Every structure is written in structure tokens, then in C-alpha cells.
Recover the amino acids of this structure.
């Protein structure tokens, strides 16, 4: 059975990517990185998801990006934006303060290291560009450039960087996951949780709520507001 | 004064790259990664070098690659090859067991995160392809691919990945550093040190010895054999 490395944050998108990789029959090696995210409860979500979706193994790597990469997700002195409208969240050219510099480059580099060691050809990452926050490292050009890099960065090349959600809306992602039996109650999206409940006000919460509403699927999230 | 991020292992090459960046008048932010290398005494060398060469700051990040990237540099059960001839070390297509999968991709990704946070345009890395061990992530094609990635992975792009040693022999590197006043006695190259002395038998020691001999510069290294 061919193997894949799947980057798993514990959020809705990476969980769906894992479900898609499993649906292809791939043996999935899930990789979660404790990179200094203040919303560390996503790490527990990642563990729940890896177990529930039948990852062959789940590794959690610790790497504190906070000293290098300034972001509201890693720096307590930067506030997570709240109550932004969907038009603001999706505004072209806007990169919000929750962007973590080069984070997805770092995560894919780690996934590549593991894939090369395992002899896995596929690397799954749950980035998407629609219904997202305008992060540069979620765009097709980024995935293409990393895929090109992976061929020359390694002994043999031959890697495929798979971003199956990249052109899907959040509603389409939720429907695809629901068809695969994903229990989104296991996942965590919120950037600024309150006692493990979602704040209901950050960009991640707004996009998640909108996705469930548009999909017509019951949102299992426990929101604080 | 423009800033640069300089990847600094504590070895001869990255030390020379730092000296070159300083000679351009750049404010240098040196980054060392404790990635699980068994020859951890290079970390002390990096601290000595950063101080001696006037880095504006020196950060050491901890990230244990050993669970992901199998290599003789990170796995005690894999032996570091000894007493290979220079012809063997430089054989085309040979990637020795000391190659750490995707290590330089990970290191450059971390440097990119810091450069974006600092607003630094230049990232220096001391890779070289001549008088080296055939690692894929030391070749010009790798540097070019990472530079292309950096433009799309980040908010604004505009990064330059500088690999000034890439086409130099070890002797040329040593002569260039010596002209800049580098004290190579501060540096550490050996993959398998014995009580902080260089083993004198691994590929890194053989290449270092050959470099000093060809440069006609006294080798300050304390070799065990």
C-alpha cells in the first residue's frame, strides 16, 4: 500500500485532506507541528482526528516558531482580529496579522523530510484559497513552487504535493468530508478559543460557520458566542 | 544598514558566508538550528563564530529532526563513514548516509520566516557543490528553486537566497575567509568528534584537511588522528 505524509493541524481542512488520502487507500503518516500556536488545543484535535480517521501513525514535532515568525497566532501581544466581515476577510491583497511568516514552507519542508525517509511519494496539505484569509502560502503558485523545489531538494525527487482542497469553498470541503464520514465535532478551527470553546468571532470561526451554513450541514462546534 | 539572515552551523563554510555578509556591510542575524545533530559541539562553535564575526544577534532554534529524517548525523545506529578516499567522497550520484533528508529545505524555510519578520531581503547559506559530499540540497538547482519559492511563499517576496560559496573549492573558501580575517580555529566541521577534537577520518574532516593543504594555510583543527 503506498504511503503518504499528511500535514494535520486538527482543523477542518487538514482533517478533510486526511480523509481524502485515506479514501485513496493510502497509508497515512500524519504530522502535526507544535510551532508555538497559542490555540494549542488544536493539537488535541489533531490526535483525536488521526485516531478516528485511521492514520497509520501520528507524530507531533515541537518547533517554536515564535522567536522567528511574528504573528497573532504566536505572539500574545498581537490581538487576533474579531468580528471582521466576510468581505474584509476575503479582501484581495489583505494578509491579516494571523499570517505566520513562512509557516507552510516550514511545515511542508518537515513533511518532505519525513516523506523522503519513509519513501512516501505523496504529501497532503489542506490549504485552500477560496473562503480563506488571503495567506500567500495557501495559493496554487506556492504549492507549485514547493513541488518544484521538492524534486531538486532530495535524493530522488518524485514527490507530489497534493492540495486537494485548494480550489474548493469551505462548504464544498465540508460536504466532501461529510460524504467520507468525517465527524467535524473532532476538529478545531478557532484562533482564540475560550476554555476550549470556539470564540465565534475570529476569521477562522466566521469562515467555518459560513461553510456549515452554506453546506446545509449541522455545525457541531461549541461556540462561546 | 540592510539586514541579512545568515544560516550558521559553526562549520567552515557557513562561517565564511557570515564573514562575506559582514564584509558587504550587512547587519547579520545569525540562525543556528539544534536539529538533532549528534556532533552538537558545532553549536558551541556557532556561538563563538557569531560573537567573533560581529553578528548583530544569534538565535539557536531547537527542532529535533531525528524522528523524521534518518541520517548518520542524527541516528546513533548509523555509522558515519570513515576513511573514504576523495574520489569516493566526490563520486557523482553518490549521496552518503550523512545526508539529512530535506535538512537544508527546513533550514532555509526557518531563515525565510525570520527574514520576512525582520524585513531582511538577503538570506545567506554556506552550501557548496565542489569539494562537497554530493548532497542534493547543496546544488545550484536547489538554491534557485528555493529562491523561486520564497517569492510566492511570503507577503511581499523580494528575497535573495545568497549562496556565495556554491561554486568555490574548499581551498578557495578558506583563502577568501582568511582574507577577511576569519579565525578557522573557532569553527567545527567534523561529523564524529572525539572529545571535541575532529576525528580526522570522516568526509568532513577529509575535505577540510584537503582544503587547508591546497590553500597553503595552516589548519588550526585539533584532529584526534
Amino acid at each position: 500500500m503506498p504511503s503518504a505524509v499528511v500535514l494535520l493541524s486538527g482543523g477542518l481542512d487538514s482533517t478533510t485532506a486526511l480523509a481524502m488520502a485515506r479514501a485513496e487507500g493510502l497509508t497515512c503518516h500524519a504530522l502535526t507541528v507544535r510551532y508555538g500556536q497559542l490555540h494549542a488545543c488544536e493539537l488535541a484535535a489533531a490526535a483525536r482526528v488521526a485516531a478516528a480517521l485511521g492514520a497509520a501513525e501520528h507524530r507531533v514535532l515541537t518547533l517554536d516558531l515564535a522567536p522567528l515568525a511574528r504573528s497573532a497566532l504566536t505572539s500574545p501581544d498581537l490581538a487576533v482580529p474579531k468580528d471582521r466581515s466576510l468581505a474584509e476577510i476575503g479582501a484581495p491583497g489583505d494578509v491579516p496579522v494571523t499570517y505566520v511568516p513562512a509557516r507552510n514552507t516550514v511545515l511542508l519542508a518537515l513533511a518532505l523530510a519525513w516523506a523522503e525517509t519513509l519513501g512516501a511519494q505523496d504529501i497532503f496539505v489542506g490549504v485552500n484559497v477560496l473562503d480563506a484569509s488571503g495567506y500567500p502560502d495557501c495559493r496554487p503558485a506556492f504549492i507549485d513552487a514547493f513541488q518544484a523545489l521538492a524534486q531538486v531538494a532530495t535524493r530522488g525527487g518524485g514527490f507530489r504535493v497534493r492540495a486537494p482542497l485548494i480550489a474548493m469553498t469551505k462548504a464544498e470541503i465540508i460536504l466532501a468530508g461529510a460524504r467520507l464520514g468525517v465527524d467535524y465535532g473532532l476538529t478545531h478551527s478557532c484562533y482564540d478559543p475560550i476554555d476550549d470553546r470556539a470564540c465565534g468571532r475570529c476569521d477562522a470561526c466566521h469562515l467555518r460557520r459560513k461553510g456549515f451554513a452554506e453546506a446545509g450541514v449541522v455545525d457541531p462546534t461549541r461556540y462561546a458566542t
About this structure: Strands of chain B lie at 3-7, 27-34, 57-62, 122-124, 160-162. Chain B is about 35% helix and 10% strand.
